[in-house]
Automatic annotation (TrEMBL):
Record-stated family: Belongs to the nucleotide-sugar transporter family. UDP-galactose:UMP antiporter (TC 2.A.7.11) subfamily.
One GO term describing the cellular component: Golgi membrane
Transmembrane segments: 13-33, 54-74
Name recorded for this polypeptide: UDP-galactose/UDP-glucose transporter 5B
Organism of origin: Rhynchospora pubera
Record bears the keyword Transport: yes
One GO MF term: antiporter activity
Localization of this protein: Membrane
Length: 87
């Protein structure tokens, strides 16, 4: 059973879903650990703490947007939205 589940993972929706969930959860876990480390460790000569967590989230969103654009350009897919704007 497990052999057929993972041998045909490209066709198997359960395996694809499990892979996507694992990828998203592990990425969020790593991001949370890194953010906590940045916020917890003092920096500089005066040993100040990083106080602007919103800036970290902003940087994450910008980098995610850039990475998504690169993947779209590499796959030759359109940047146009698929769903109509009014819905």
């Amino acid at each position: 059973m497990a052999e057929t589940l993972f041998l045909n993972w490209r066709e198997n929706r359960v395996a694809k879903c499990a892979f996507a969930v694992f990828g998203i959860m592990s990425t969020l876990l790593i991001y949370g650990v890194c953010q906590e480390k940045i916020m917890r460790v003092p920096y500089g000569i005066e040993k100040e703490y990083f106080r602007y967590s919103l800036f970290l989230v902003f940087c994450n969103r910008i980098m995610t947007s850039i990475a998504s654009a690169i993947v779209l350009m590499a796959s030759n897919k359109s940047f146009d939205p698929i769903a109509p704007f009014y819905s």
